[in-house]
Amino acid sequence: MDQNFDRAISPLLDLSDVPAFDQITADSVEPALNRALTYGRETIANVLQDNQPTDFEHVVAPLEIMGHRLERVWAPVSHLNAVKNSDDLRDVYNRCLEKLTQYWSEVGQNQELYKAYLKIRDEQHNLDPAQQRLLDLAVINFELEGVGLADEQRREYADIKIELSALQSKFEENVLDCSNAWSFHTEDKSRLGGIPENALNRAAGEAVQRKLDGWCFTLDFPTYNAVMSHASDSTLRKLFHDAWVTRASTAGDHDPKYDNTPVIEQILPLRQQAAELLGYADYAEYSLARKMAESGSEVEAFLRDLAARSKNAALRELADLENLAGTRLQPWDISYYSERLREARFEISDELLRPYFPLEKALAGLFSIAERIFAISIREIPPVHAWHDDVRMYQIDGPDGQRAGRFYTDLFARQKKRGGAWMGECVGHNRLDNPGGAAVAFLVCNFMPADADKPALLTHDEIVTLFHEFGHTLHMLLSKVPYPGVAGINGVPWDAVELPSQFMENFAWQKETLPLISGHYESGEPIPGDMVDRLLGSRTFNAGLQSLRQIEFALFDMRIHREHKSGVSFTTILDDVRKEIAVIPGAANNRFANAFSHVFAGGYAAGYYSYKWAEVLSADAFSAFEETAILDDDTGNRFRSSVLERGGAVDAMTAFTEFRGRAPTIDALVRHNGLNQP
Fold it and tell me: Which of the residues 469, 505, 563, 645 is marked catalytic?
């Protein structure tokens, strides 16, 4: 190993196994990154020496190893910033993020490297398909980093990337800090009617921690969702609704220092400016250069077509809710009356189901399903260097019995942890200089933890979330591609990366699988057959409203990145999109965009449509199991070998058609969502 990777300098530089999370401090981050960047620059200088052959082995392979090692140093820092945030770590994270962004701009704008990659791509004729794909993507990435620009424009582009990186980090910090700063305290139990016991117990525990009597509710999603779906006091629901939809804005009672409006107003023009420097009309066109969809107009047409297919169902669903309520509904009433209607129509509810879904049973069942259809095995192992007591670790062995990878789980909501659910890379695949080097992933959720009387119990929606993130995890870990740049989810177009995750969601909705993932926390009995039937009958409940909500987000995202030059504000575009798509009017104080981290802090800018785009692929892929058997291992093995094992080493459409035998159609998505009714 290069002398720069000296554990004595920082635990982050020990690449012998997984990161030593329990030894990483804020002070250990910058020395490690500085050494890693020195190594990176030395590697580039070495491959560009005059006496070095210009071929894959001597240029591309060393740079693949270099990128893999840099990511190994940075991934744990980024992860801890998301799950164990602190002022000290945040400061060093942002400082180092600027250095890292600057470094990758240097690499992407290195004209000698670019010429070398072009030469290898065009002149080396013994490349295998994965190597060719890696080179094709690398050349595109060089061009999207501004390698072809004049010197002054290259510097301008690099400066924009650094500024955008800092702004996106600030956006996420504002959402986290604003959410953490809000709480609702009461000693009046009469206001808490309908709220589930586990949410009340958690609020009581929070009050004790804060040395208060009564109950103290925070703004993490499980708590917010429990109040919005079950609190019978509409004024309490409105209080939580207003707090949620005004996060990181000045439209509510939050501290204005967390306002993301000026952050958005800086991000959008900088993205437009970057796109124009590269010769694109707008940022959406730039974003789509690496995606399956070919143009913004194609994406908008796809979204509007799906909206048209969803609208009749959504209007019927809204009418049903208002008939139940006997009045016109406000935004803070929708979740509450949806849950009441679901209870009335299907004799089922989250709280009726929750005792049947203890986390331990859900995980065991999920793993059993994956083992059966993909011919893998999964077992729990001691968590190495865990960052929190909640953390657990698992190993996946492939069909050959060899270790395919490991993954950490961190599944419960807590303070200083980013909201939502995600899969992240801890250690990427790299078999170039480490033939047995299996990848390691993070699987992160924000479920309600166990309380004194009961284990962690999930709603069925949370079961679906768990299956979703595990789909990403399988995609990451089962890859057999030796090159880091196209292994796992790397190199997969953003609008195809949700295929395995949304595909796995379907297994949470099957008569054959529900007994495997359920078992009453007291008796161990699986969910009764009649309850299974009622749950499955509820699958398309409010599917039209849910579809329109996602389309609204996706169309807003695409339009703000296509129309920024027009001078129309993002708030005006959001209002326009709501008028076109939504059937439920939004509250006047709703500042949804100010907490839209997927687009303003994550990787989904001009790409949020990917969820719906990939849902077409995933529904069609799952229909292959409906045509054979839900747990058919032959079909599962074909999906594993065609899609999961190949990562980004083949074109996404090629991988899909190889599995399905044809191009995808929208029919299965329409059927699964019950949108094929007049």
Answer: 469
